[in-house]
Design brief:
With 297 residues, the protein is of the alpha+beta class. It is built from ten helices and nine strands. It has two domains: 78 residues, 2-Layer Sandwich (Phosphorylase Kinase, domain 1); 202 residues, Orthogonal Bundle (Phosphatidylinositol 3-kinase Catalytic Subunit, Chain A, Domain 5). The relative contact order is 0.15. The structure holds adenosine-5'-triphosphate (ATP) and magnesium ion.
Length: 297
């Protein structure tokens, strides 16, 4: 059976609420009067496929049953973009990775020597251990983050910096409760920045894997490192260091198959992604998937 094409939401000017200052790209929050939730409209960086990357990444997360923000393709006054449903509702707000790390990790603290390389997997794990009071909460948080990092490896998301993950917190009767927020901001994935002739060349020369391996992720391995490993290399190291967290996540992703991605790509309206963008996305995910499956043998 043919699945229907993804809808394109036409965002109306009278729905606009406020501009979102966080993050690097132009975007705004809005609410359709019919809807209970706020949505974030994001313009892609000109000349890139960040909008379709957001949508395809969210659909991959959905198939894998990894908690993610819902994304739709969207149009605002003739401009194409993507739109993301807010998960900060019912009194919950997003407490970003850097805020969590500031309370738990020395290099992020007031007297620390913070650098981007302080955003290491070890520091993130320490922060989870110090944030959650009960072992069950800690384990759950670390498992969720492992799933997000494995998703990043599958889609070559190179932008998992410390404001691109967080906890959803709520204060009720003076008591904080919280859990890891659904994964969001996958705009920098799936080779979205490539120009068509480069994409074509990489495909023709069988160098998609090389492209994946060269990417630098937002999570570092050691604070002293100048650059983060690729999201895929991070998982190769993490599954050895923390098999209890990363093996289940890699097993989950290993169940994904080519036909699931082909279905997702078929559902993206014809003129929203070129033939090469679709072909490259397929080759990229297949490469990463194959590399991760190797880690389970
Ligand atoms: N689904 C969501 N629910 C609640 N808040 C969100 C959601 N998506 C994004 N945000 C908030 O909006 C900010 C900006 O969104 P996002 O990270 O998607 O934008 P960006 O410009 O692509 O960021 P970057 O600088 O990382 O490229 C996030 O850091 C987060 O605080
Ligand atoms: Mg962001």
């Amino acid at each position: 059976m043919n699945e229907p094409q993804y809808p394109v939401i036409e965002v109306q000017p009278e729905w606009v609420l406020e501009v979102e200052a966080m993050g690097s790209k132009e975007k705004f929050w809005y609410r359709d009067r019919e809807d209970k939730a706020d949505w974030l409209f994001k313009y892609p960086k000109p000349g890139t496929g960040q909008h379709w990357a957001e949508k395809v990444a969210a659909e991959i997360a959905k198939v894998l049953q990894i908690r993610h923000a819902t994304v739709e393709l969207a149009l605002f006054m003739g401009s194409r973009g993507s739109t993301t449903e807010s998960f900060a509702r019912e009194g919950r707000n997003l407490f970003h990775g850097n805020q969590i790390l500031a309370g738990s990790v020395r290099s992020y603290g007031p007297s620390g020597m913070f650098r981007h390389s302080s955003h290491t997997l070890d520091n993130i794990r320490v922060a989870m251990d110090r944030t959650f009071a009960y072992p069950h909460g800690r384990e759950r948080a670390k498992l969720a983050l492992a799933e997000y990092l494995v998703l990043d490896a599958l889609i070559a998301n190179v932008d998992r910096h410390h404001e691109n993950w967080g906890l959803l917190r709520k204060n009720a009767d003076g008591q904080w409760t919280g859990f890891v927020a659904p994964t969001f901001d996958h705009a920098s994935s799936l080779g979205r920045e490539l120009l068509e002739d480069r994409r074509e060349l990489l495909l023709k020369e069988g160098r998609v894997g090389q492209y994946v391996e060269k990417g630098r992720g937002g999570v570092f391995w050691a604070e002293a490192d100048k650059r983060g490993p690729s999201p895929l290399e991070l998982i190769r190291r993490a599954i050895k260091a923390y098999p209890d967290e990363f093996r289940p996540a890699v097993e989950k992703v290993a169940r994904f198959d080519r036909s699931a991605l082909e279905t997702i790509l078929k559902r993206v309206p014809e003129d929203w992604m070129s033939r090469l963008e679709r072909e490259f996305t397929l080759a990229l995910v297949c490469y990463s998937h194959h590399e991760m499956a190797k880690l389970l043998t």
